[in-house]
What we know:
Chain A is an all-alpha fold. Chain A is built from 13 helices and no strands.
Amino acid sequence: MSVESYIRKPNRPLQLYAAIFLITLYLPVLFLPLFSFNDSLYVRFPLESFTVRWYVELFARDAVWNALWNSVRVGVAVALVSTTMGIFAAKAITRYRMPGKGPVVTFIMLPLVVPLIIFGVALLVLMSQLGVPLSLYTVAIGHMIVCLPFSIAVLIPRFEGFDASIEEASADLGENAWWTFWRVTLPMVGPGVLASLMLTFTVSFDEFILAFFLSGTQPTLPMYIWGQLRFPQEFPSVLALSSIIIVVSFVIVFLGQWINRGAISASTSGDAS
Amino acid sequence: MSGNNGFISIQNVDKYFGSFQAINDVSMTVGHGEFFSLLGASGCGKTTLLRMLAGFENPSSGEIYIDGQPMSDVPPHMRPVNMVFQNYAIFPHLNVRDNIAYGLRKQKLPKARRDDMVDEMLELIKLPHYGNRKANQLSGGQRQRIALARALILRPKVLLLDEPLGALDKQLREQMQLELRALQRTVGITFVFVTHDQEEALTLSDRIAVMSRGEVLQLDTPGGLYERPQGREVASFIGTMNFFDGQVRGQTAEAISVEAAGLGVLSIPETKGRFVEGESVQIALRPEKLELMDAAPTDGSESTKGVLQNAAYLGERSHYYVKVDGHETPIAVSAQNRFDGSFAVEEGKPVWLTWRDEAAVVLR
Amino acid sequence: MTDQTLQSGSASGTAGPRAGWFGRLIYRSETARGYTLLTPALVFLGVAILVPFGILVVMSFWTAEGFGFDTTLTTHNYEQFFERPIYMALLSRTFGISGMVTIATVLLCYPMAYYVAFHVHRNKMFWLVLITLPFWTSYLLRVFAWKVVLGYEGVINSALLSVGLIEAPLEFLLYSKQAVIITLAHAWAAFAILPLYVSLEKIDKSLLEAATDLGDGPVRRFFRITLPLSLPGVISASLLVFIPTTGDYITPALLGGPDGAMIGNLIQKQFGPINNWPMGAALSIILMLCIAAISLIFIMLTLFVRKRIS
């Protein structure tokens, strides 16, 4: 015990470093809301007076509402489909002995590391060769490529977190696969499913790189922002819009991660990467 | 339904996991209402066999029949068997009542009837007021009873138990052994019980299959296994055993004459095996079948002289280790500690061992 | 409960064979069950990744012709890549920037991961969630935030100007290689911390006690025990930062300026304003091949390190 506490004794410089690290991690992003309430066209110190007019202006724009609606539709669809597929895939990966599992899992997780620009241009080329017009559907397909592995990665620790014998007990007591899923598996992985829905929604909602190559005439919210960045006079309203997106994203992701925190600890005590 | 002559009939079952053979050509039958144990060290295949009965694993070849029905294509949820899992697998998101009633959904009973059945089960497992507890508020012994109740409420033809007492401490385990045996008598269901604890298997079972490396070494009653082990592995796995090298001197219809190193010539009842003269065999003799004496027996019975090497006092009995000429390892002798004073323990003291030849077993 | 009630019924169902060859196959074979569940995900990813990638490979052997393509197969684009020094220069600068980002990220994240692994005892989850939170949120907006901070009239410059520390705005902040490196390192920090944390957390604490017991001070203990045992985490963190950043184009586009441009920008331009898709395809393939080669080296390194420490 004394050796333990010797190793774990508080380390002041390290504490300071951790504090600075966290502040630096969040500070740049916090400037967006700060300047979004600033009554000036320019993003610079010293601050002028407080205003909410950039937000009010935002509400009056149809283009913003359209883009928001597009992003929400894509996000919800992507979250639902990738989480559904993810549940099945995570169960298969954690529960069954099967040949070729290693390479298959590697292939599924590939989109998490391969630069997204590659998937973007590859899908763009495919769609143009097939003569499929770019639309929110093509954006959703692109987002699914990233969200599916994320969903699986979130759900695997959930499945690993409860013993397979719980599902076997259900089968043993007379329930088939369908009922076992509804009565045992889903309640057990429920927090993971919720977390997966929230995280994949946010990833899709905030995603820009794939949307850049794959969206047609209907822009998603990040695409809309990208378009506005060219106009200096739009800067304050972009700040306001960005602030809303960031706050909402942070809240959703934090809730999702927090609901699922049991599984995070399970995955980090095992092998994650 | 070929060759089906028991309530459970396992016929020439093999099981491979990849290239590893977990079960090697096992055949056995279990009678109706029997308390049947699969006994062996971990990795011997006993749990694999149990999981094949439950339907979680499939035989690579061979067939399992339960009550006359072949089981190969019957998935776990269609089988007339229920299982008590090693870790009990109590559903953590349900309370005790819902756990016990879990399997009743398909029967579509009125709620009142279902509640009555659950109450009856709670009564049977002596936890009448625990219905609304959550799984994480229960002790190991309570979880084990709930796992039992959850399975028994479905009136299975066979109840499978996978080391259900392994997680309990010694005192609770002994109590649960008695309760389990009484319960099995009450409900009259066939129990197939997996354990690595030979004492537990001997206490509980009507018959025991001793397994090793995926094979059944011997299938017998507890008494049969203990008194007449077939082969050295079973003999040494069940209880303590002294082994002596021996040579066959002759055989009659009833008995076989063997010269054993350290013991002299023994005449052992043996009717089944046929031995040739001069064949090398082993003689097995339980420690409690030997008697330790201060002086050579005067009644003329067989005896051998040795030197007391050491002794271990175990309360109700003591173990003595005696070195005998012509036998490498010390011979273990187990004797009850009588109230009139124990056998005087003095290392290096000369002692005499006596036994009855019928108590010895010949092993090839 | 009496004998009869328990013995009489066979309520858990009479055993009967399950109908259908598919049902039998599913029940008999774990492999069949597993792959059946994996089918939706595998079919989707197969179609959405392998097919487009195949077409991308084919297209890289085409040539652009006005608004269409000349579909005769030729290595023209690849020859162009090796003939014009601009491509090679851009690729090597890309790997240079990604390399710098990787080193900076891992160096800066390691102490943080160490802190959470060894010095945070309560609310560990809260810390982990807090650190990884930004990673899940809009990449575009995080880059945009850095533009606000580093801009010509941005946070830093205007703050320094208003307190009178500088006379004119610092120009090197925005539109430079440094700006790209800072932004990328910041953006990928959350991604790098997890593998580092996992490898540190996995270290058996009794090993550290043993090292202390055998006379190592904190510094020697760190270099002799902690660092070597966490090397697999360092390597996977490096890989997880290096590979995705090589393909980035938002950060260079918003903050890079002329000497901060990366290969991703050129690929994007080939599919946009330049409108030479086959060349863009060829550049993508070349980038993928380089990444594959570098990953292979990293993985070999990991295997080597694993072998050394276990």
